[in-house]
């Protein structure tokens, strides 16, 4: 039996170009079905209180793939949650914030754990939670789409109803 989707789903490779919004900074993103939560390269991460709520201050320092220039920006965002990772090296707690990325022709507001990914090949890792919003993943291909989000691009806002309470502790190798 063949199932035909009502509308064509976008198809992405295991590495894609994306842009961080609202700046339009183009970065390579690894789509990793082995990770649940997406991760963004962030430096000088510190938590602080702002009007009785927990916030995170951090620095983005990324190479813009479109022009080769270094993009550096300090951000302060509300802490969405903390991610606790357990592995051979012990326990690591990472702050998670909501940010926007452009994939294809759509802007997605997603959860991103913050960590120094300077030693990684890709400054942005998109996990299953984000991949599930994008469409289909072809693990044999790369660069199947180009980020093209103008002012009129549709926005898929993050839906906290999709949160799964069981993912707050992740086992890492």
Task: Describe it.
By secondary structure, the protein is mainly beta. 4% of the residues lie in helices and 53% in strands. The chain contains 1 helix and 14 strands; from the N terminus they run E-E-E-E-E-E-E-E-E-E-E-H-E-E-E. The chain has one helix at residues 128-134; strands at residues 11-13, 15-21, 25-31, 38-41, 43-50, 53-63, 70-78, 81-87, 90-103, 106-115, 124-126, 136-138, 155-156, 169-171. It has a 6-stranded mixed barrel with strand order 2-3-11-4-10-9. A hairpin with a 2-residue loop joins strand 9 and strand 10 (106-115). The relative contact order is 0.28. The model is unreliable at 168-173 (pLDDT under 50).
Characteristic terms for this protein:
53% strand; 3-stranded antiparallel β-sheet; disordered C terminus; 6-stranded mixed β-barrel; mainly beta; 4% helix; 173 residues
What layout of secondary structure does this protein have?
Blueprint: E1 11-13, E2 15-21, E3 25-31, E4 38-41, E5 43-50, E6 53-63, E7 70-78, E8 81-87, E9 90-103, E10 106-115, E11 124-126, H1 128-134, E12 136-138, E13 155-156, E14 169-171
Parallel strand pairs: 1-12, 3-11, 4-10, 8-14, 10-13
Antiparallel strand pairs: 2-3, 2-9, 4-11, 5-6, 6-7, 8-9, 9-10
Contiguous low-pLDDT stretches (5 residues minimum) are 168-173
On the 0 to 100 scale, the average pLDDT is: 89
H-E string: EEEEEEEEEEEHEEE
Record the strand order, biggest sheet.
2-3-11-4-10-9
Give the helix/strand class: mainly beta
Global morphology: globular
Any idea what the radius of gyration is? 16 Å
Q: Helix proportion of residues, in percent?
A: under 10%
Total strand segments = 14
Task: Give the terminus-to-terminus CA distance.
Answer: 40 Å
Question: How much strand content do the residues show?
Answer: over 45%
């Amino acid at each position: 039996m063949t199932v035909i989707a009502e509308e064509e789903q976008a198809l992405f490779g295991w590495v894609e170009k994306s842009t961080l919004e609202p700046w339009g900074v183009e970065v390579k993103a690894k789509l990793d079905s082995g990770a649940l939560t997406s991760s963004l390269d962030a430096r000088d991460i510190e938590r602080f209180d702002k009007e009785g709520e927990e916030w995170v201050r951090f620095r983005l320092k990324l190479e813009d793939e479109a022009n080769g220039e270094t993009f550096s920006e300090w951000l302060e965002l509300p802490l969405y949650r903390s991610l606790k990772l357990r592995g051979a090296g012990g326990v690591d707690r990472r702050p998670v914030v909501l940010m926007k990325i452009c994939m294809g022709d759509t802007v997605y507001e997603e959860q991103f754990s913050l960590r120094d990914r300077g030693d990684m090949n890709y400054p942005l890792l998109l996990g299953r939670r984000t991949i599930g919003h994008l469409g289909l993943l072809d693990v044999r291909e790369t660069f199947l789409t180009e980020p093209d989000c103008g002012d009129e691009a549709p926005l898929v806002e993050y839906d906290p109803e999709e949160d799964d309470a069981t993912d707050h502790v992740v086992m890492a190798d």
